[in-house]
Amino acid sequence: MKKQITNVDKEKEYKEYVNAKVPKPNYIKNCIWAFLVGGVICAIAQGIMNGLKNSGLDKTDSNTVTVIIMVFLGAFLTGLGIYDKLGKKAGAGSIVPISGFANSIVSPAMEFKREGYILGVGAKMFSLAGPVLVYGFGSSVIIGLLYYFFNK
């Protein structure tokens, strides 16, 4: 008597096949790369900030100029295609710093460049960063209101 093959057996066999073929990530290596790249990005920003403070800017102005420079560097390196390659290797180590924010704005804009500057670049520029900005602004307003009402 032959054993009947059911859909459940086929699904189980397919899942086992897929699990055997899917590459397993090396979490330790990925964490080390994220830590190193994120640390290098932060060390560069700290070096820029220290240089600006030593040139005579006060703390607030040097912080502001450092953020502007890091956003510019992130956008510039994205435009050259370097930041995306770095992101594939470093993962969160390249996304978490402020330069990753610039990358999240410039990447979609570059992808839709051929559709024109208004409907392509302008419309798609904030497709990824837009929800992040809305959430950030919205949560800061809510926290500000809570702070105002509870500290009267």
TrEMBL record:
InterPro entries assigned to the protein according to its UniProt record, in alphabetical order: MFS_trans_sf, Spore_V_AC, SpoVA
Signal peptide range = none
> Protein transport: is it a keyword of this entry?
no
User: Per its UniProt entry, which superkingdom is the organism in?
Assistant: Bacteria
The UniProt transmembrane annotation reads: 31-52, 64-83, 90-110, 130-150
> Keywords for this entry?
Membrane, Transmembrane, Transmembrane helix
Q: Which NCBIfam families match?
A: spore_V_AC
Q: What is this protein called?
A: Stage V sporulation protein AC
> Which organism is this protein's natural source?
Maledivibacter halophilus
